[in-house]
């Protein structure tokens, strides 16, 4: 008797399963189609993204190779335009690097305003890599350490001089230069002395700090 009941129970379960399958088959098929389509769309998006990254990398390297050519045989404005084209269409990483390269070329060619605009654009771009944003901010300050608004420069440099900042030594160096500009010689000397004695600071910064201290007596 228990075997008979088990067989009947199994038959009932199988029948209910068939009825449920017939009832919900369209829904199950639709879900499967959506999952497959989503997976296919994701793979296609990844393929497009990789293709765009490769193309952007090739354009960036082409511009870099032109920059390495002797200055007499290259047109700075054409090179700046080439980096600008990369910055316009490339993914975030290459876009940021291209803008930094274009800013450096603008500064080198004497167009300080254009360089400052590009550095500031990177420094304030929240989608850019934080390390590169900090570099752009530092370059923006450094380029106008003798002419810019002391309050604005100090505010930006102090943010870069925090203990967790990769640009801390260079920011402190620029803060010392800003103090000298404002006649705060004692404050500047104190900061330069700390930089010259800090073994965690890059050697170039320590040497510059020591040389400046020697000049200041």
How are the SSEs placed, and which strands pair?
Blueprint: H1 2-67, H2 76-89, H3 92-109, H4 112-123, H5 130-143, H6 150-160, H7 168-181, H8 185-197, H9 203-216
Mind explaining what this structure looks like?
With 217 residues, the protein is mainly alpha-helical. It folds into two domains: 9-129, no CATH class; 144-217. Helices cover 81% and strands 0% of the residues. It is built from nine helices and no strands. The protein has helices at residues 2-67, 76-89, 92-109, 112-123, 130-143, 150-160, 168-181, 185-197, 203-216. The longest helix has 66 residues, at 2-67. The radius of gyration is 31 Å and the shape is elongated. Residues 4-8 have low confidence and may be disordered.
Number of helices, where a helix is a run of at least 4 consecutive DSSP H or I residues: 9
> Main sheet, how many strands, which sense, barrel?
none
Rg measurement, Å = 31 Å
Strand content: under 5%
What's the helical proportion of residues?
A: over 70%
Could you write a compact summary of the structure shown?
This protein is an all-alpha fold.
Q: Features of this protein?
A:
elongated, 217 residues, mainly alpha, 81% helix, single chain
